[in-house]
Amino acid sequence: MDRIKEEILQGHCILGIELGSTRIKAILIDSTNTPIAQGGYDWENSLIDGVWTYSLETVKIGIQTCFAAMKHDVMEKYHTEITSFKAMGISAMMHGYIALDKEDNLLTPFRTWRNTFTHEASNQLAQLFDYPVPERWTISHLYYSIMENLDHVKSISYVTTLAGYVHYILTGEKVIGIGDASGMFPIDDTIHDYNKKFIGIFDSLVKDKGYSWDIYHVLPQVKVAGENAGHLSSEGALILDPTGETKPGIPLCPPEGDAGTGMVATNSIAKNTGNVSAGTSVFAMVVLEKQLSHSYHNLIDLVTTPDGHPVAMVHASNCTGEYDKWIGLFDEVLSATGNTISKGGLYDKLLTKALEGDKDCGGLIPYNYLSGETIVGIKSGRPLFTRTHNCHFTLANFMRAQLFTSVAALRVGMDILFEKEGVTISAINGHGGFFKTKEVGQRIMASALHTPVSILETAGEGGAWGIALLASFLVNNENKDLQSFLQTKVFGKSKAYTITPTNEDIEGFNAFLVNFKKGLPIETTAENSLS
Fold this sequence. Notes:
By secondary structure, the chain is of the alpha/beta class. It is built from 18 helices and 22 strands. A 7-stranded mixed beta sheet has the order 16-17-15-14-20-21-22, with helices on both faces. A 5-stranded mixed beta sheet has the order 3-2-1-6-13. A two-stranded antiparallel ribbon has the order 4-5.
């Protein structure tokens, strides 16, 4: 306790803030890279005029609230105030579109990764580049705006992601970590910058529009892990902490996306390692030993680790959101009958019930598509529950099916890596809310991916811890590369709990997947028929 208090007073602790899809979280770590305090702020995206968005004013309120909560946690635990840090970093959900003019005015509502109306734009770019360009990427949103002749495009001065935006208002620096950048525009990992060939193709594509800008100069400058990305400005310090107690001048690491911080937080940046992050969305990352044989547009994304190594990413937009709704309904049923249980207790009870279900879910087939799901050809999505007439309709099967459908689209993409590209990994490290109930999510994921799934004892710390580690790497790396730093300074003595799927588990998921695929036309009909 005395050591930690002294580190706080001397400004030797490190801060990480991550803006996730449902929670903004701040984590403070000490000189051993161990979390010692935290704060949070819950928020939700809104569907406004057909666009999934958050207001940028709420962004500021959120980071201020979670920062204040972290300061309060420090006072409660260590009986001292914190006014400075050795370093800090900002992370957020990847992709999306924030466009600013030269006065830093927001030109159009912030579009999150969840928006899929950029389908035609992403397809055209993918064909031109012969490279996967997902719908949620920043360049897809920009080109969509160009195709639609949206008035704001001519006034663009800067286009960035949510992490890049928060970093900018705190430091004044228009930079981005290479992992987050790789979800904006294709990266050439040999030069750690945007792909020059594709930059030229894009500029030629829009040349006749007569814009005053070119694509390279409206995108943020790319930085790799370990590079200085600026310092907390006087204005930024007041945005972060309106009390004025936090001192400016703190160095910041490059802002990163949640995929990159997930890789760091699970020690999954070495070649042939993988991790899966499962919460509101679900995505798996596999660090490649060599590039894929060809492009798999709308199925496999190509991104990078925070230190610039190529990564294959399978991303599904929907995961836990639909079964969250069902558990909320079950909570209402309990309340209506005069019964109460804590939210966490209800989740644990119902999700654990899934392990008692039939291996193939007994003929129950839900679709959890609150939004579109490109991997399986769903454009806008409609949550749907179906079952065969002779199904085994039990609570255990219902919950198992909800969990299975949460990772079914992910499995479709991963099959390409496993079967067509021959990618092998010994185990996948899992993290995120899907794994919060002990054993359940881990066993379901292992069954779906027919691969052992490991959970590190630190996995619950999440992306805020991951970006704090990247900030620590900035100032404490001792000339080590990122992989060596993580192994020796962070994970050297950490423990992991691994679940290996049984043959029955794997066969059960495979049987479910057959029915799941057969039923997809029902989902397509629903999204075309129900508004």
